[in-house]
Specification:
transmembrane helix; Spore germination protein KB; transport; 15 helices; transmembrane
Length: 365
């Protein structure tokens, strides 16, 4: 784990894709359901507040000099409690992987391969991810570097050709229901940046450590900016009502592009963007889960457990919720609370204990 294998550019792309990930398709629907036409305000507030845990994650990552994230947890909490916390974090990363796999599986089965069972699409997606992770995180990083320009290329036509479809009245009245729904939506969006705790595990293998803070925050800001634009487009083109009722408003948004009855059907491009971002996000999360289990079991090669871990992941993704509607209720309810615990509360506790330990060492000198 100590060998430098990820460049600053690759880490920026990881951060960007992790921020965009599932939010690019789901955020407009989730936020419009709560805040209606004020969904864009929730993205701004949640995104700005999300910078604070990102700074916390960076500080924790900067402390990983001679050991990895899981080793640091054992140092902070002690051998016995540390093992328990590592187990909890590994469980969380597996749970997060299952959520992501279920999201993309539901999308592909409901929109693209309608007649194909979800477990088949999940299996195919997992095999592609498993192949990348088997060859190492550096292979996933190179793949992300190659795929990144295509996200911009696939998005640009939609952004340009939908401008004439804007209905500015859809944004009014601002704060129709007051600040309460906006802050509720901001909390829901705030849970997306909290998932970046996963990237802290990669800190020891990134080069030029002094530049990581700028790269990390820049990736988060650019990703949040893209979510803000997509949310605004959803409200301005589809309206708050359709955005809240449609599970995949960004996909529906792409259907609206029609230039002279020739340049149309861009929803395939949007599906491609989401599959790319989810692939990278899921590959990183799955890799981190495997690394955590290897650390917990003192296994030298994480590759030996990929298939077994994959079986658990596939089963969990399938049985996590009975149907798509119940799944999204779960994702915006109990799952948000879990992400807040592992992405905010425990990192704060870790940081406090590390600070106290540093001060004791300084006084001892």
């Amino acid at each position: 784990m100590n060998q430098t294998i990820i460049s600053q550019k690759q880490f920026f792309i990881f951060t960007f894709m992790y921020t965009v990930g599932s939010a690019i398709i789901l955020a407009p629907h989730i936020l419009a359901k709560v805040t209606e036409q004020d969904a864009w305000l929730s993205v701004i507030i949640g995104g700005l507040i999300g910078l604070l845990p990102a700074l916390l994650f960076h500080w924790i990552g900067q402390q990983l000099k001679e050991e990895d994230f899981f080793g640091m947890i054992q140092t902070v909490f002690g051998r016995v409690v540390g093992k328990m916390v590592i187990f909890l974090y590994v469980s969380f990363f597996i749970f997060l992987s299952a959520l992501l796999l279920r999201e993309i599986g539901d999308f592909i089965s409901a929109i693209i391969l309608v007649s194909t069972p979800r477990y088949v699409t999940n299996l195919l997606m997992f095999l592609i991810i498993c192949m990348g992770v088997f060859y190492g995180i550096e292979v996933v990083a190179r793949a992300a570097e190659v795929l990144f320009p295509w996200i911009i290329i696939l998005f640009l036509p939609m952004f340009i050709f939908l401008i004439p479809e804007f209905q500015w009245d859809y944004l009014l009245p601002v704060l129709k229901n007051g600040f309460s729904p906006v802050f509720e939506g901001a909390f829901l969006y705030f849970t997306f940046p909290l998932e970046l705790i996963t990237l802290v595990v990669l800190y020891p293998i990134i080069n030029k450590h002094k530049q990581i803070k700028k790269t990390f925050l820049f990736g988060l800001l650019i990703g949040t900016g893209l979510i803000l634009i997509v949310t605004l487009y959803s409200i301005l083109v589809l309206g708050p009502d359709l955005s809240s009722r449609n599970l995949y408003p960004t996909f529906t948004l792409a259907k609206k592009v029609n230039v002279a009855n020739f340049f149309q059907r861009l929803e395939v491009f949007m599906a491609g963007v989401w599959i790319i971002t989810i692939y990278v996000k899921l590959a990183v999360t799955f890799y981190v889960s495997a690394i955590g289990i290897a650390k917990l079991t003192s296994l030298e090669d994480y590759r030996k457990i990929l298939l077994g871990l994959g079986a658990v992941l596939l089963a969990l993704a399938e049985f996590i919720s009975p149907d798509t509607s119940a799944f999204y209720d779960f994702a915006t309810g109990p799952a948000s609370i879990l992400i807040s615990i592992y992405g905010l509360m425990i990192p704060i506790i870790i940081a406090i204990i590390m600070k106290i330990g540093k001060r004791k060492k300084e006084k001892g000198k």
